[in-house]
Amino acid sequence: GWSWAFFWGQSPLAGLVVIGFLWVSIAATIAAFWRLDSKAGLLLTPYLAWVTFASSLNAAIFVLNR
User: Whole-angstrom Cα distance, residue 2 to residue 22?
Assistant: First the structure.
């Protein structure tokens, strides 16, 4: 969804909205997996870090293009 919102829709704001939902979903998945197996939750943390970094880039593009 993010690629469509950001690139095809040419909307950094829509990209931020989508990536916000993605970030929350990943964090919730980590929490759920952590309760079952901490290693499984730990293995998802790099993905959350990447999405956090990508969201900061998206936010910077949004601010610079306002």
Answer: 9
pTM score, whole prediction? 0.88
Helix axes 38-64, 12-36, angle to 10 degrees: 170
pLDDT tens-place string over residues 5-55: 999 999 999 999 999 999 999 999 999 999 999 999 999 999 999 999 999
Q: How many CA atoms lie within 13 A of 36 on its CB side?
A: 9
Token pair belonging to 65: 């293009």
Q: How would you class 44 by CB atoms within 10 Å of its CB: exposed for 0-12, middle for 13-18, buried for 19 or more?
A: middle
